[in-house]
């Protein structure tokens, strides 16, 4: 509820539908694929191949880091939240093997939306 505009935008973005891509291609149990299509793969509290549930898709924490501290104090400073992820964060998944046309400046612009890098409307 706190980031409604960003959540709505994300649901319509490819990151918000990333896990469905695996399911459509019967690759949701492929160990070389699933880590980039879920949130927090093999991280504490994150997804595993058999535990996806609400961690399906490339969620906020995939790019902005763990949000539990921020969620526990939503009116305080955004503790541990990366506001502008660096290119290396994206390159973890968008690498030549899986995303050969990835160009960070171009893709970064496509990630800016009201409530997600731009002022809410």
Q: Tell me how many strands there are.
A: 2
Largest sheet, if any? 2 strands, parallel
Q: What is the rounded distance between the termini?
A: 16 Å
Residue windows where pLDDT falls under 50 for at least 5 positions: none
Q: What structural class do the secondary elements suggest?
A: mainly alpha
Task: Calculate the mean pLDDT score and round it.
Answer: 90
Enumerate the strands of the largest sheet in spatial order, edge to edge or round the barrel: 1-2
Q: What is the chains' assembly state?
A: single chain
What percentage of the residues does DSSP assign to strands (E)? under 5%
From the alpha carbons, calculate the radius of gyration and give it in angstroms: 15 Å
What is the N-to-C succession of helices and strands? HHHHHHEE
Helix content: 25-40%
Shape: globular
Helix count, per DSSP? Answer: 6
Short account of what is shown:
The chain has 6 helices and 2 strands. It is mainly α and 121 residues long.
Overall description:
The protein is mainly α and 121 residues long. 31% of the residues lie in helices and 3% in strands. It contains 6 helices and 2 strands, in the order H-H-H-H-H-H-E-E. The chain has helices at residues 4-12, 18-24, 60-64, 68-72, 87-91, 104-110, and strands at 113-114, 117-118. Strands 1-2 form a two-stranded parallel ribbon. The radius of gyration is 15 Å and the shape is globular. The mean pLDDT is 90.
Topology at a glance:
Elements: H1 4-12, H2 18-24, H3 60-64, H4 68-72, H5 87-91, H6 104-110, E1 113-114, E2 117-118
Parallel strand pairs: 1-2
């Amino acid at each position: 509820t706190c980031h409604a505009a960003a959540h709505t935008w994300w649901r319509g973005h490819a990151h918000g539908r990333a896990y469905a891509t695996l399911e459509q291609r019967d690759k949701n149990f492929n160990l070389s694929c699933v880590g980039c299509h879920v949130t927090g793969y093999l991280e504490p509290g994150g997804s595993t191949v058999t535990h996806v549930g609400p961690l399906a898709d490339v969620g906020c924490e995939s790019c902005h880091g763990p949000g539990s501290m921020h969620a526990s104090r939503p009116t305080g400073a955004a503790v541990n939240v990366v506001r502008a992820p660096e290119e290396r964060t994206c390159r973890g998944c968008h690498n030549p093997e899986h995303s050969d046309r990835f160009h960070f400046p171009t893709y970064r612009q496509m990630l800016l939306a009201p409530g997600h890098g731009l002022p809410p409307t």
